Description:
This protein has 135 residues and is mainly beta. Helices cover 0% and strands 41% of the residues. It is built from no helices and ten strands. The strands form three sheets. The chain has a four-stranded antiparallel beta sheet with strand order 6-7-8-9, with no helix packed on it. A three-stranded antiparallel beta sheet has the order 1-2-3, with no helix packed on it. A three-stranded antiparallel beta sheet has the order 5-4-10, with no helix packed on it. A hairpin with a 4-residue loop joins strand 7 and strand 8. It starts with a strand and ends in a 17-residue tail after the last strand. The mean pLDDT is 93.
Amino acid sequence: MPRPLVFGNGSLLVCFDRQHRARDLFWPNVGYPNHLLGHINRVGVWCGGALSWVESDSWQRILGYDGETSSGLSLWRSWDLGLEIEVRENVAADAPAFVRSMLVRDLRGTDRLVKLFFTQNFILGQSDVGNTAFY
C-alpha cells in the first residue's frame, strides 16, 4: 500500500497513511522488521468534554512536506472543535528517533484546554508475543 508521508534515515523508516496514522515502522533495518505491520496508530484530540480522532471525517487533513525538504509539514483542521493543528515531523538524520511537534491554534478566539492522545499498536519484531517497549 502506498504511503503519502514517509520519513527515514537509513535505519529507521516511519510511514503514514492518508488519515495521518502511523502504519509502518521499520528499525533497525529499512524493510524488516516492521514493528507496526500496518496496524493503526491514532491521534485523538480532547477539547470541551469531547474526544475526536483526527482520522474521522470531521477533520480536514492536508498532508505534505516543508518546501523541498524531507521534513513533514501538515495541517489538521476541525471546524466542529474550532481547532487547527500544525504538525511538523521527521526522523533525525543521525539517530533512530522520530520527532514530532504540534502547534494547536484555537479558531474560536477563546482560551480552552486541549489534550492530545496517541495510541500505539506495536508488533515488536513482527511477533504477537511480548510486545513491551519503553520510549
